[in-house]
Design brief:
By secondary structure, this protein is mostly beta strands. The chain has one domain: outer membrane lipoprotein receptor (LolB), chain A (Clam), CATH 2.50.20. Strands 1, 2, 3, 4, 5, 6, 7, 8, 9, 10, 11, 12, 13 and 14 form a 14-stranded mixed β-sheet that branches. The radius of gyration is 18 Å and the shape is globular.
Length: 227
């Protein structure tokens, strides 16, 4: 599946989701969580690891989106998230380390695992102990954002109410697409996406800068089919 991230609200507008509330034009100011780490369950922090080298980087890091994703600047990242699509609940996780990508999705009683080393993608079926090896291609939700692609001049702020709670939002224009980040304090709580024309919310469950390298191990006792 290919996902296009898109905006769930207009510039500076407040949008209400699932709680029957009314829209307001006054955006909510960013909350302050006192620096407490709520999401990272593996010893990390979200203080950001990149020091700005110019005015552009300083402007990006001044945003909550830039600050949040800058902590993964070395390419190491693990994020768990969930969403509903076509009547099914999807529970997913993605990880990146040393240029490799790993993902796992559980839905409708099935488990899908992929490993991408940049040249080949390995689709792993643990139940049948088989692997499909094919050329790399995009077929998953991309949660991460490259801070080098962010343009602060095209970012607008607002708020969004999800299940009765207000979240500060930053909406970005990226190559003609819109992406909205919903924050609880400094924590990324939701991203909005459109999948096959259906709008959905992606809930961020947990994240970490520490990645287990064993996730990227290709089982050597599985039968491999190449395509």
């Amino acid at each position: 599946m290919t996902v296009t991230l898109t905006a769930c609200g207009g510039s500076g507008d407040k949008e209400t989701v699932d709680n029957g509330g009314t829209n307001q034009s006054e955006p909510v100011a960013p909350a302050d969580n006192g620096g407490e780490e709520k999401k990272d369950d593996n010893g990390g922090d979200n203080s950001g690891t990149v020091q700005p080298e110019n005015e552009y980087q300083a402007a990006v890091l001044a945003t909550k989106t830039g600050k949040f994703f800058s902590q993964f600047a070395d390419g190491s990242m693990y994020i768990e998230y969930e969403f509903d699509y076509d009547g099914e609940k999807y529970e997913s996780a993605t990880a990146s380390l040393n240029g490799k990508e790993w993902s796992k999705t559980v839905y409708a009683g099935t488990v899908s695992i992929t490993i991408d080393d940049g040249e080949y993608m390995y689709i792993i079926d643990e139940e049948s102990k088989t692997i499909i090896k094919t050329k790399s291609y995009v077929d998953q939700i991309d949660i991460a954002v490259d801070t080098n692609e962010l343009d602060p001049d095209k970012m607008t702020t607002g708020s969004k109410t999800i299940n009765g709670k207000d979240y500060y939002t930053e909406t970005w224009d990226m190559d003609g697409d819109k992406i909205v980040m919903c924050f609880d304090g400094d924590e990324l709580a939701y991203e909005a996406a459109v999948l096959d024309g259906e709008e959905m919310l992606i809930k961020i469950v947990s994240y970490s800068k520490n990645v287990d390298s064993k996730l990227f191990t290709i089982p050597d006792d599985y039968e491999v089919y190449e395509y």
